[in-house]
C-alpha cells in the first residue's frame, strides 16, 4: 500500500548517524554532508516507486553535487522479511545503477525511526547547517514514466536552499511503499514462567 510523507517540520535538526555503506566502510552524516546542503533519501532495492525514479534521482543528484549539495541514500527495510533488500543485494543495486552517491544500510532501523521516515522514497532536504528545509517529492512521477519537461521539484528546492538557505513554501508530499519495519520482538511474557501462588 502506498503512503505519503507528513508535512515538514521546517528547521528540524538532522539526527546524526554512522552507517555502513555498500563500499563496506562506515560513513557519518558529518562526513558526507554537502557544503551548501544535503539530501537524505530513504530508498530500498525492490520498491517499484524507487526503481521508477532512479534515473531521475541519479541525474538530479549529480546536478546538485555541482552546486555543493550532497545526496545520501539509506535502506532501512527489514531484510529478513524482504531478502531482496539485504546488504548484499544493496551492493548489486548500487553497481547496477552506478550510484553517484553513498548507499548506506540502517540495519537496526534506528536512523529511519529517528528521521520518522515513512516510505520509499522519502526525501529530507537540509541546508548547510543540517536543518530541514524540504520534505517533499522528487517530482510528480510515481511508478510510470514522466514527460521530459516534468518539473524537478527536489532539484529546484535544493538549488533554492543552496543559494538562499530556505526551501519552497509549498511542498508536495513524496509517495511510495511503506518502510518495511521489523515486527516487535516476541513479548517477554512468552518466555516468562508464572511464579507459584
Describe this structure in words.
This protein is α+β, with helices and mostly antiparallel strands and 197 residues long. Helix content is 26%, strand content 21%. The chain has helices spanning 29-32, 48-65, 87-97, 110-115, 153-164, and strands at residues 2-4, 18-21, 26-28, 37-42, 69-75, 102-105, 119-120, 122-126, 132-134, 175-178. The strands form 2 sheets. Strands 3-2-6-5-4-8-9 form a 7-stranded mixed β-sheet. Strands 1-10-7 form a 3-stranded antiparallel β-sheet, covered by helices on one side. Helix 2 (48-65) runs parallel beside helix 5 (153-164). The longest helix has 18 residues, at 48-65.
Brief descriptors of the model:
single chain; alpha+beta; Glutaredoxin; seven-stranded mixed sheet; three-stranded antiparallel sheet
Q: What is the fold's blueprint, element by element?
A:
Blueprint: E1 2-4, E2 18-21, E3 26-28, H1 29-32, E4 37-42, H2 48-65, E5 69-75, H3 87-97, E6 102-105, H4 110-115, E7 119-120, E8 122-126, E9 132-134, H5 153-164, E10 175-178
Parallel strand pairs: 4-5, 5-6
Antiparallel strand pairs: 1-10, 2-3, 2-6, 4-8, 7-10, 8-9
Describe the largest sheet. 7 strands, mixed
Low-confidence stretches: 186-197
CATH superfamily membership: Glutaredoxin
Q: Which fold does the CATH topology refer to?
A: Glutaredoxin
* Total separate domains: 1
Structure class = alpha+beta
Query: Which outline best applies?
Result: globular
User: Roughly what percent helix?
Assistant: 25-40%
**Quick one: CATH class?**
Alpha Beta
Mean pLDDT: 92
Question: Separation of termini?
Answer: 48 Å
Report strand %: 15-25%
By CATH, the architecture is named 3-Layer(aba) Sandwich
Total strands:
10
